[in-house]
């Protein structure tokens, strides 16, 4: 009986030993590939550079045409034809539409006839005055009759001058039956159809009046937007206004227009005006910039992202923005020395631009900072340098605790 108990006990010990061995092997496999406490941490590094750094102000803006014109009729009449194509470029002076000119042609002819008649009367009166003055010199006519004739000549001269003005006005009214483009730009959609009666204040069947059949207030024939060049309006905080004004007084402020996703630069231009007051409700001031818009990449009422260059820092210390972390110590980076040791270094950051940030305190040119793998670092960690983006290094995801 004791022998059997001893054998059973030994079997249990053997099974327990096998279980412990199995667990140890599994634990070893589970930890395989993980760095130990003293194993080097794979990281990517970048060297602190000393270079020029542009200082940009980012804002959101709206594109506006440099000039926007409602082409209104200047005389009333029936619209005979429309000569422009909707949405197409038009040139200044180009014929856009024609109003029936016949009533105005008749008015011009009437004014010309009146002018001719009064000119003939004036010539007759002037001839009589010359004869009367000859007779007066011979003392053969009363002086009062000569004076009266002089008055008649003056009155007829005034009538002829008025007739000339009437002729000019009738000719101008006739000219206005041809509606031409006052500026070059892009024509909008046609607001009035051929055959409608148009006037200086509206048109029957134009714009929103098509359903009502009444004269619409201030319905234009068409609108024209000047888009080359074109402008953009955007607001900047009032605390940046002084910097903008100082730079504007010394040189033109460069402006870039980017699409809504900030992935494509649409055009480059310059600031043309700063508003004369600050919006007290928003604490911002409006700024206008102008762009050549050569490729018509900017369109009226388009929303864009604006970048305004206000300064350039010469010989600034810069690091990739991915090297900067924020945690309990504040803003810091990990600096790698010649012994491949990473040490935490508190820094003071400045402006950022396209993935690069300036450092105003805490680093020197030529030092190496960790840009990839910050999440597994501790102060004094040994590191292993790898290429950026290599598997094994992980970028930080915002703030972290060291």
Can you put this structure into words, describing what you see?
This protein is α+β, with helices and mostly antiparallel strands and 402 residues long. The chain has four domains: 41-53 and 315-385, Beta Barrel (conserved putative lor/sdh protein from methanococcus maripaludis s2 fold); 57-66 and 225-313, Efflux pump adaptor protein, beta barrel domain (Elongation Factor Tu (Ef-tu), domain 3, Beta Barrel), CATH 2.40.30.170; 73-96 and 183-220, no CATH class; 101-176, Helix Hairpins (Orthogonal Bundle), CATH 1.10.287. The chain is 27% helix and 36% strand. It is built from four helices and 20 strands. The protein has helices at residues 2-30, 102-137, 143-175, 241-250, and strands at residues 41-47, 49-71, 77-82, 89-90, 95-99, 178-180, 185-187, 197-198, 222-237, 254-258, 265-274, 284-291, 303-320, 325-327, 330-336, 342-346, 348-353, 356-361, 368-372, 383-385. The strands form three sheets. Strands 1, 14, 15, 16, 19 and 20 form a six-stranded mixed β-sheet that branches. A hairpin with a 6-residue loop joins strand 10 and strand 11. Helix 2 packs antiparallel against helix 3 (143-175). Mean pLDDT is 84; it is low at 1-5, 28-35, 206-216 and 395-401.
């Amino acid at each position: 009986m004791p022998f059997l108990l001893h054998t059973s006990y030994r079997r249990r010990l053997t099974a327990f030993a096998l279980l412990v061995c199995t667990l140890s092997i599994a634990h070893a496999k589970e930890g395989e590939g993980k760095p130990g406490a003293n194993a080097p941490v794979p990281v990517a590094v970048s060297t602190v550079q000393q270079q020029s750094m542009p200082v940009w102000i980012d804002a959101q803006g709206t594109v506006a045409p440099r000039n926007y014109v409602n082409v209104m009729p200047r005389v009333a009449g029936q619209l005979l034809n429309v000569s422009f194509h909707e949405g197409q470029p038009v040139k200044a002076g180009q014929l856009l539409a024609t109003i029936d000119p016949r009533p105005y042609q008749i008015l011009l002819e009437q004014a010309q006839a009146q002018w001719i008649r009064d000119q003939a009367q004036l010539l007759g009166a002037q001839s009589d005055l010359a004869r009367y003055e000859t007779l007066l010199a011979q003392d053969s006519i009363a002086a009062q009759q000569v004076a009266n004739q002089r008055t008649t000549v003056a009155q007829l001269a005034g009538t002829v001058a008025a007739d000339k003005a009437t002729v000019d006005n009738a000719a101008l009214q006739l000219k206005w039956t041809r509606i031409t483009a006052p500026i070059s730009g892009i024509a909008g959609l046609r607001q009035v159809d051929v055959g409608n009666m148009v006037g200086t204040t509206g048109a029957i069947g134009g714009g929103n009046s098509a359903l009502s059949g009444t004269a619409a207030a201030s319905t234009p024939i068409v609108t024209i937007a000047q888009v080359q060049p074109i402008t953009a309006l955007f607001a900047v905080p009032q605390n940046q206004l002084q910097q903008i004004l100082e730079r504007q007084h010394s040189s033109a402020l460069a402006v870039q227009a980017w699409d809504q996703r900030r992935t494509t630069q649409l055009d480059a231009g310059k600031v043309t005006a700063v508003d004369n007051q600050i919006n007290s409700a928003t604490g911002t001031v409006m700024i206008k910039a102008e762009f050549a818009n050569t490729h018509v990449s900017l369109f009226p009422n388009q929303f864009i992202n604006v970048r305004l260059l206000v300064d350039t820092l010469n010989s600034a210390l810069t690091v990739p923005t991915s090297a900067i972390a924020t945690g309990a110590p504040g803003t810091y980076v990990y600096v790698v020395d010649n012994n491949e040791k990473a040490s935490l270094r508190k820094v003071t950051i400045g402006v950022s631009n396209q993935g690069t940030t300036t450092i105003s305190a805490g680093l020197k040119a030529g030092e190496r900072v960790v840009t990839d793998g910050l999440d597994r670092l501790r102060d004094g960690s040994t590191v292993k340098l790898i290429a950026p983006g290599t598997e094994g290094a992980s970028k930080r995801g915002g703030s972290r605790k060291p």
